[in-house]
Specification:
The chain is mainly alpha-helical. It has one domain. 70% of the residues lie in helices and 0% in strands. Helix 2 packs antiparallel against helix 3. 13% of the residues are buried.
């Protein structure tokens, strides 16, 4: 996600988001399998819901934190209008803190 914010071209941002998606997918499947294996049949649905919610919350929190990290370390793309990070953060105006 940080590399997406540093992107200067759409193609680089696209590739970084694609890699992020692969990483999220690779983490999601084992997490769901572990929730199913570790909990009794009666509680599996609840455990799977917690796992799904945690993954979504982690993604949302990362989306809120990454622009601040980029600004703190002097990224020129950290929230400047017209850059990739600005486009990504403004696509969810309700979640934008910058």
């Amino acid at each position: 996600m940080i590399l997406t914010g540093l992107a200067q071209t759409f193609s680089f941002a696209f590739m970084m988001r694609l890699l992020t998606g692969f990483g999220n997918g690779a983490a999601y499947v084992p997490a769901m399998a572990l929730a199913s294996a570790w909990f009794a049949r009666k509680r599996r649905g609840f455990a799977s819901g917690i796992v799904s919610g945690g993954i979504g919350a982690g993604t949302m929190i990362a989306g809120l934190i990454v622009p601040r990290i980029l600004k703190a370390y002097g990224s020129e793309a950290g929230g400047i209008p017209g850059t990739t990070s600005e486009a990504v953060s403004s696509s969810s105006p309700g979640l934008r803190i910058c």
